[in-house]
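go over this record:
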Amino acid sequence: MENGKNVTVLHKIEGLEGRNVVIAFGKTRAGKSTFVNDAHGKKVVKSTMSVMSDTNDISYVNQPITVNGADLILVDTVGLGGSGEGHDRSSFAWKWLEILHPGKKRKSPLKPTVKGILYFIDIMDGAVNEDNIRNLETFKGLVGEEVQESIIFVTTKWATKAEPRNRKIHESHWVGWGQKIGKDFPRASILRLDDITGRLDEEDLSKLSLAERTKEEGEYHSNAMRVLQQLLTKTATQPILAQREMYAGGKGMKAGQTTLGMTTVKYLSEDIERTRDHKIIQRLKRAIRAIKNTVMMKTFFPTGK
């Protein structure tokens, strides 16, 4: 289903089989949609400076972008632990399990449709806190360890060297993130985006002359292309973990049997222990039951067709 002239809602990853897919993950407001626009050199997905997420669907840009001779399809995702409806980690898990499920009639071997993964980190978002750790563990449950070399963690929203106080804070955050990622994703890469050029917000961009704005946005495009060029040096050679698990599990596979499902249940259970609100507890318990007991095939093919 098309979601505007530029993007299409992603319902099944199989629909992009044979193409070079790059997925942008990360917390709400980390810069995923902005990066997609920068890479394309124009606004193809919604992106504002709002504190709320602009992305409500997992969608891909219809027009591929050519990098080093390869045509890439960029997928923009909802934020992990985001501010909008359906942006919590359990909803994130459900959406991706549905998208990655191989389908009832599939007989051919799985292929690595997802060739590269970008995980965006707002460097202003403090060092590694509990919420970010949960996001990373959820992400790891989705993609697994085997594709780590095709993952780049992209830090965004850096202060320039002309802002020494903020820059010092960001550098300390960089150390914290580097240590956490080095421990949990040892074969992945982490880099800085726009840390040399800096980045203007939309209000400041609007004050520039056309020539100045064109130059500024050209730098953002170049920065994004460098990230994609690095990503293509080590593309994935097999499907991500959740996709492999569901393919191997067959018709009777339950959501709670996947690593992503088990990780989600763990955090939902922890949240139950932390609250005394009866309504919240009941909602969390329903979510746990659904993940543990739902057979994936029945969920996605309820009519048996």
Remarks:
- Residues 8 and 160 are 36 Å apart (CA to CA).
- DSSP finds ten helices and eight strands in the chain.
- The first strand starts at residue 7 and ends at 9.
